[in-house]
Specification:
With 200 residues, the protein is mainly beta. Helix content is 0%, strand content 62%. The chain has strands at 7-11, 18-26, 38-48, 52-62, 66-68, 71-73, 76-87, 92-102, 110-121, 125-136, 143-155, 158-169, 190-198. Strands 1-2-3-4-7-8-9-10-11-12-13 form an 11-stranded antiparallel beta sheet, with no helix packed on it. The chain starts with 6 loop residues before the first strand and ends with a strand.
């Protein structure tokens, strides 16, 4: 789900494994407060059982007002996504498709595919792999990303983890990770993260 600031979201209780989500976002306190008050809206449908989670969503978000020649306008940004998560028992896998279309001529659409796998190691650890392919309609701005991770559980709800990530940008792409600065388009950021988390 998209979660811009000033968003009110509600998800219904499950019925036969299905739940419906909705969200509304306002442009209150925005620097571009002259735009429409209702800035975004979205809906999602989710189904889950003991092994599957299936999610589909659609969001429409208006840009900040901008000057388009002789008039001010706000551009619709349409975000669509579909995800499937499956628990095989010894490992879990996920597949996600995302699409962004902008309601303005000569603006390329973006499509992204993400594949994730998590597998147990021994009795307490988890290894993770995530692959992302991001395609832009034109402009040589495609990018590929990969993340390897490892979680060691000190207790059932407490773990330390490590992550190694790499993004391979095409010549005109400037995709980054975790706020890593990029000097110029086409650079390939890399990241090493070590941390800890606790589930309450």
């Amino acid at each position: 789900d998209m979660r811009p600031k000033h968003t009110l979201a509600y998800t219904t209780p499950k019925l036969a494994g299905f739940s419906l989500g909705s969200a509304l976002s306002s442009g209150l306190n925005d620097t571009a407060s002259s735009g429409k008050t209702l800035r975004g809206k979205g809906v999602s449908l989710q189904y889950s059982n003991a092994r599957w989670i299936l999610i589909g969503s659609f969001n429409d978000y208006l840009s900040d007002p901008w000057d388009d020649g002789d008039r001010e306008r706000q551009t619709h940004n349409y975000f669509k996504s579909a995800s499937a998560f499956y628990d095989f028992g010894p490992l879990a896998a996920s597949l996600t498709w995302q699409r962004q279309d902008v309601d303005y001529h000569a603006t390329p659409s973006m499509t992204a595919w993400t594949v994730g796998i998590a597998a147990p190691v021994g009795k307490t650890d988890v290894a993770r792999l995530s692959l992302v392919q991001r395609n832009i309609e034109f402009g040589n701005k495609d990018a590929f990303g990969m993340m390897l991770g490892y979680d060691h559980f000190l207790r059932p709800n407490w773990a330390i983890y490590g992550r190694v990530a790499l993004i391979d940008n095409h010549p005109n792409s400037s995709i980054s990770y975790a706020g890593i600065p990029i000097e110029q388009a086409g650079d390939d950021p890399q990241n090493l993260a070590i941390g800890m988390y606790y589930h309450f």
